[in-house]
Design goal:
Number of strands: 2
Strand content: 5-15%
Shape: elongated
Strand order of the largest sheet: 1-2
Radius of gyration: 20 Å
Distance between the termini: 43 Å
Order of helices and strands: EEHH
Helix content: 25-40%
Largest sheet: 2 strands, antiparallel
Number of domains: 1
């Protein structure tokens, strides 16, 4: 069974889990590193309201020359 756990990895390689993990025995793990910086929360919160304004046929037409 797979279980994903969020963590941060410091520049020195130390892994810090964001929440405690309780295991019955030692387990192997795979670590995926996201090289891009974290997206500010305000960007995520405004995404839905901006999409309502920008995700329209009129906007698609207005910016079609850039595709």
């Amino acid at each position: 069974m797979l279980h994903s756990v969020e963590a941060t990895i410091e520049a020195n390689g130390k892994v810090r889990l964001t929440k405690p993990v309780h295991l019955k025995h030692a387990c192997r793990a795979i670590v995926t590193i996201f090289m891009k910086p974290e997206v500010p929360e305000i960007s995520l919160l405004s995404e839905q309201s901006l999409a309502a304004d920008w995700d329209t046929p009129e906007e698609d037409n207005a910016w079609s020359h850039l595709q």
